[in-house]
Amino acid sequence: MTNETTLAFELPEARAAATSGNAPLDRIAVRDYTTEVEIGAFQAERGVTQRIRFNVVLEVSSSAAAKFDDVDQVLSYDTITEAIQDQLAFERLNLLETLAERIAEQVLVNPRAVRIFVRIEKLDRIPGSLGVEIVRTRGDGENLHPIDTPAAQEVSIVHPLVVFLPNTVLHGAGLPAWLDAIAAHELPAIICVEQALETAPQADVDAANNRIALLSIEQNAWVLAGKDKRCVVVDSRTEMDWAIKNGQLSVWAPSKMVLDAVRKPKVGADQPLALAQWFAAEFSADHVSVLQGFDGAIANERLQIVDTATDL
Hints:
Elements: H1 4-8, H2 12-18, E1 26-37, E2 50-60, H3 65-68, H4 78-90, H5 96-108, E3 113-122, E4 130-137, E5 161-165, H6 167-170, H7 175-184, E6 189-193, H8 206-227, E7 232-234, H9 237-246, E8 250-252, H10 255-260, H11 272-282, E9 288-291, E10 303-306
Parallel strand pairs: 5-6, 5-9, 6-8, 7-8, 9-10
Antiparallel strand pairs: 1-2, 2-3, 3-4
Helix pairs in contact: 4-5
């Protein structure tokens, strides 16, 4: 009989075999897949990459692939490696547990996938390694989507209306008319604002100043929300996706998305319009609409200057 303590530290292949029951399934495995990525909840893990290692075993229903040597009938190893790459590219994460869950969820969408073991380890935090391992079976957790749900199918991309609302509009008499026009637009709308009028404190480090500037933009987002209850401050990609799908009038609070982004903006928060353009590209918006102009902005294909609320 396998010792449970020994089994706990075995690779997923051994754990899968030991828990397979009387009717073992076929297995495919990706072992010691190592890459560098920015991940982690601690401040020391932001802005730097670290090595993480994946060991994944996927149990699958049997097929005739081996008998006929037909690659088209087999569930490919790429199913696992692509899930890893997709989830690493989607957004920066704080937790290995979240990454493991998302990889499992993506792989188990495949109709031949039955059960998956995902082990992820950080290799640079301690002299050895530290990590997590999860086991998921199709249909086990509420977070796993059945094959025939919309989450497993190709969905159409919604192109939101991204509006840059400068302080001249935020503190002007015409704000209610602008918000009425934005709320009435046929597209779901997201409002981006600039830094607050109050002078922000300054630090001796550029990274700290960027964080301060991001917080100043968020303060302004709350100022706008306080002026009109239709405006809802949103700081996470998940909530923003929900808001776009449900037509909520959102005001972007940028700190979390900027700091957690895999493809970080090339500009700092001291360039709020350029930051809004980065945000628009991240959410597949056709362009940014700048209300009444801003700091000499010049209209182009990706930037529209809107002079009056009726022109929006």
